[in-house]
Specification:
By secondary structure, the chain is an alpha/beta fold. It has two domains: about 5-170, Rossmann fold (3-Layer(aba) Sandwich); about 190-245, Molybdopterin biosynthesis moea protein, domain 2, CATH 3.90.105.10. The chain has helices spanning about 5-15, 30-45, 55-60, 85-90, 110-120, 135-145, 155, 160-170, 225-235, 235-240; strands spanning about 25, 50, 70-75, 100-105, 125-130, 190-195, 205, 210, 215, 240-245. Strands 2-1-3-4-5 form a five-stranded parallel sheet, with helices on both faces. Strands 6-10-7 form a three-stranded antiparallel sheet, with no helix packed on it. Helix 2 links the parallel strand 1 and strand 2 (about 50). The protein is globular. The chain starts with 6 loop residues before the first helix and ends in a 9-residue tail after the last strand.
């Protein structure tokens, strides 16, 4: 009788084929972080890997039609060009690669002021550092199998990232802070719904903010499946259990 495999061995066996035949660009200006992510990509089966140690290096790779990665994993905060600037150029169609190229953003606890802009630019996923191999594999599996839901380039052109970038470079807080308040059970501004139970089409009745009060998504935003997934990816670090919404099936939030 063949020896039974432990659960973690079964997971890794499946993961090793996840990136086979795919070209991946990984960019991070921190050598240690870059080496960790690169090792994960190789363990997940990637044999065609492009490494970038700065934003400008990543941009040159994406601007080279011979590179054309299937997937780009970029750090938010890098010299020359940050991940947000590269994401906008990609969605605007200013690069020779397809606008639908999957882009995953590596984020740390200090990057939440950038999250709202990345969501507006339809980033494909967030990965919070540090990350395990299993968590990375699970995230990439969803990214590579999800349908692209991009808007027209003109819609992305309206998203102002200049102010966000200037505050990032000046080390000033990014986003408008607001003191956190305890979750109410109900009220005229909507009802609290657990993040894992929110349905696409629900409308935010209160702002969603980061740990230091950074504005992530403004009230009156209709939540798409994509936005809900991005919030779920950040749920642990945001400590976000509930959000206030007007559910699409509830005409009167007081009822």
């Amino acid at each position: 009788m063949a020896a039974r495999m432990r659960p973690e061995e079964v997971i890794l066996t499946g993961e090793q084929k996840l990136l086979e035949g795919r070209k991946v660009l990984v960019a991070d200006d921190e050598p240690f972080n870059l080496s960790i992510v690169v090792r994960m990509m190789r363990e997940l089966g990637c044999r065609d890997l492009v490494q970038a140690v700065s934003g400008s290096t990543a941009l040159r790779a994406l601007d080279d039609p011979t590179v054309a990665p299937h997937l780009a994993i970029l750090d938010f905060n890098m010299p020359d060009f940050n991940g947000l600037q590269i994401l906008k150029r990609l969605r605007l169609g200013e690069l020779p690669v397809a606008r639908e190229t999957k882009l995953v953003m590596l984020t740390g606890s200090s990057d939440f002021g950038l999250v709202g802009a990345a969501m507006a630019l339809d980033v494909d996923a967030f990965v919070v550092k540090p990350v395990s191999l299993q968590a990375m594999a699970a995230r990439l599996d969803k990214v590579l199998n999800q349908r692209s839901e991009l808007k027209e380039p003109a819609d992305y052109a309206k998203i102002d990232i200049d102010g966000v970038t200037k505050r990032l470079l000046s080390r000033k807080p990014v986003g408008l802070a607001k003191p956190s308040t305890p979750v109410k059970k109900t009220g005229p501004n909507g009802i609290p719904v657990r993040l894992d139970a929110v349905k696409p089409g629900a409308i935010l009745s209160e702002d969603v903010r980061g740990p230091a009060g950074e504005l992530l998504i403004g009230k009156a935003t209709q939540l798409s499946e994509r936005l809900i997934r991005r919030l779920q990816e950040l749920q642990a670090v945001l400590k976000l259990e509930y959000i206030y919404v007007f559910p699409p099936t509830v005409a009167d939030p007081e009822s």
